[in-house]
Specification:
This protein is mostly beta strands. It has helices at 7-10, 25-42, 192-196; strands at residues 64-71, 78-86, 91-100, 145-154, 157-162, 168-172, 184-187, 212-218, 233-242, 255-261, 267-270, 273-280, 288-295, 307-313, 326-335, 341-351, 363-364, 370-371, 373-382. Strand 2 (78-86) and strand 3 form a beta hairpin.
Length: 391
């Protein structure tokens, strides 16, 4: 039903909260700093071909990535996200969090201890009473799970398989300029190329289904640093998700979506929180206001600073959305070596919990479990960094 529309119709959303894990902070931070140095050493060596598929080509050995992968089929949709490092001999070391369509719905007022404070407006049609669920409190919560995996090259592209996950085929995103930026890779529909590479030794690999998507962003800015430079700019984007709001349980595959994070559209409503309000025409009931939030809280977690988005519709048209659910996203920023924000990679973990609209029917997953959540991935890349991204 609701989806982050191209921002000229709703100026996307978001903001955030989340639980950071102190227990693993020192281990992950140290791992990250080492990974960053390795990424700096190897990330600029060019783009060697590696037809042996042993994980020695592509100039990415030792590179660390932020990543997200989703199996968005109606039979037990899941998302996996976190950090991974490409090691020599085709080995992968990853620390991940997971989400599922069967996760319980959080309480309406549970904004999480890291939630930015929203400063309410005086006029009724633009207020949220200073309280808004900006993300799912389970996102990035608890200690990440360690996963092994393997990677290999398929010509100029990359194949990746984490433990318990299918093989995904990843293409490099074309960047307008390379200096100071890490590699970006997005899943394609060419998974078959991964079984034909490496002299046949990957022929039996379990390939990703059409409902599986993934994105990798090379980490070249230390996670332990919080001095990210954020400026107004336009972003090109792609989105893929299983929409649990839809009775037909539709899965989308990398559709285009834009975010105009510009003055006059987004305004500051708190520390590192911005909001845009637009009006969306409806066939019945009059126009509906859409509240869109973007937040990059200052707190540095084991995964680094986090990014949150929320796109909320005022379904009951009472001029506020602290009593409405929206699409809620959590993820990691795409940052240059010098700390410039160039994009965002986020996971959609939106429960269905709107009081005004009872959700009946819907889709059925394995074991008769009803899918009442929207799961998926959304990625924004600065138009300046990649003018053709999303086209």
């Amino acid at each position: 039903m609701t989806r982050p529309a191209p921002i000229r119709s709703i100026q996307l959303v978001t903001a955030a909260v989340l639980l950071a894990l102190a227990a693993s902070t020192s281990v992950l931070a140290a791992d990250n700093d080492n990974g960053n140095r390795r990424g700096d050493d190897h990330g600029d060596r060019g783009h060697d071909r590696d037809h042996d598929g042993d994980g020695k080509g592509n100039g990415l050995v030792g590179a660390e990535f932020d990543f997200a992968q989703g199996d968005l089929s109606s039979n037990g949709a899941t998302v996996v996200y976190g950090m991974l490092t490409l090691r020599d001999e085709g080995k992968v070391e990853a620390n991940v969090w997971k989400g599922s369509a069967r996760d319980p719905i959080p309480a309406m007022a549970d904004t999480g201890r890291m939630s930015p404070m929203i400063e309410p407006e005086g006029k009724a049609q633009a207020t949220d009473k200073g309280r808004k669920v900006l993300t799912n409190p389970r996102a990035f919560a608890g200690s990440p799970q360690a996963l092994a995996g393997q990677w290999w090259s398929a010509g100029d592209d990359l194949c990746l398989q984490l433990e318990g996950q299918p093989v995904v085929h990843l293409d490099r995103v074309k960047l307008g300029h390379q200096d100071g930026w890490g590699a970006l890779l997005r899943s394609s529909e060419q998974a078959g190329e991964c079984t034909r590479s490496g002299g046949g030794k990957h022929a039996m690999a379990r390939l990703a289904a059409p409902s599986t998507v993934a994105f990798l962003s090379q980490r070249v800015f230390p996670r332990s640093r919080g001095d990210i430079k954020i400026k107004y700019q336009r972003f090109n984007g792609i989105i893929s998700r299983l929409n649990g709001w839809d009775p037909r349980c539709v899965t989308t595959r990398w559709e285009k979506t834009d975010l105009h994070f510009t003055p006059g559209t987004f305004e500051s409503v708190g520390k590192d929180v911005w909001r845009a309000i637009s009006s969306e025409p409806q066939k019945r009931g009059g126009d509906m206001q859409v509240f869109s939030y973007l937040a990059v809280p200052q707190e540095v977690t084991p995964a680094g600073r986090l990014v949150f988005m929320d796109v909320g519709h005022d379904f009951n048209r009472n001029g506020r959305i602290d009593d409405d659910w929206g699409h809620i996203y959590a993820g990691l920023p795409i940052v240059s070596k010098s700390g410039d924000l160039g994009g965002m990679m986020m996971v959609d973990m939106s429960p269905v919990g709107i009081r005004e609209i009872p959700f009946k029917g819907g889709c059925m997953g394995e074991g008769g479990a009803q899918l009442t959540a929207t799961l998926g991935l959304i990625v924004y890349v600065s138009q300046e960094l990649s003018p053709d991204f999303g086209h």
